[in-house]
Amino acid sequence: MRTSSLRNAVRLALMAMAFLAKWAAPTFSMAPTPSNDMEMSFGKHRGRLISEIVEDDPSYLQWLLGQAEAAGPQLEASAHPYVFPVDLDDGRLLEISWRKGDDHEKVAHDFVTEKGLPEDNIPEIISFLKDIEQNRVGYRVDEPVSEAPSRQLLEVAEFVWKHFPQVEGLVSFGKYRGRALSQVVQDDPEYCSWILETAAKADSSDQLRQAAKRIQENHPDLVTQLEQWPENADGQTTVTCGKHKGKSFQAVLQEDTDYVCWLIDNIGDEARSKNLRALISFARRHADCRGGVEGKQAANWIQENHPDLVTQDTDYVCWLIDNIGDATGGVEVKQV
């Protein structure tokens, strides 16, 4: 490799830099971006401020953060951001590539060894590598840009982590969309139980898995409580299903023995809800189920008319119990 060849390569690099600058010139909005805000430069929200996306579509940013966590190490380990042609005087056109941060001397030595060039070219090659990195010119040829992990994505993720850390703590789906997950943990542990159980399934969404991961990492006491619900529930545990929702197990036992006895007799261990299983477990230890005419009539009606509900839809069973009354000549549905 001669000096003229290196100069040709540098000229090609400068031409590439000029082309990239023209092709990827940023578009500027009329209003200045706040110092604590950033404009998205890719994806479906391209051109919008991060603060707007936090309000309108936090699930997208949560997805982006997850992608950044997964792609960061891969990006640093596998990217070849500097790839340039080298035109030799003998007519050969070679290609040199390296990663930012690589040892320039080793890159140069490996290059001349692989291509069969004299080692006295190594100093010129090292100088060439340094010049390219100082001009921050580089492009990928080993994978399509659309499929490669994006450094822009990492930059946005770092910005969100720094200025909008609350995004990770928001629920991005379901009836609590937009609420803080920590508040949902306090208000509706049964819903959190559903998140954990559903996220464990193979076909669960990324949003559910991320929410489950945050519950497990930030609320281990709740996870332990949910795991122990059926066995260790006490009278102060709150009911989250049916007409007694919001009451303690002890209050339900005192106010409506027929109800808990019906749960024991007709749902038992088949309950899908952990909270319902916990209530049944508590009732088995403390309820006196020797009486209860009205509750047994309701149970008989459900078994005769909807036998599949007992094991397949316990929430609907709760609704039926709420809306079934004892009438002369049998049981009638009061609401459809």
From TrEMBL:
Phylogenetic lineage = Eukaryota, Sar, Alveolata, Dinophyceae, Suessiales
Which Pfam families would you find in this protein's record? Answer: ExoX-like_C
Q: What is this protein called?
A: BPT2 protein
- Exodeoxyribonuclease X-like C-terminal domain residues are 40-67, 172-197
Q: Which UniProt keywords apply?
A: Signal
Q: Which organism is it from?
A: Symbiodinium necroappetens
The signal peptide annotation in the UniProt record is 1-24
Report which superkingdom the organism of origin falls in.
Eukaryota
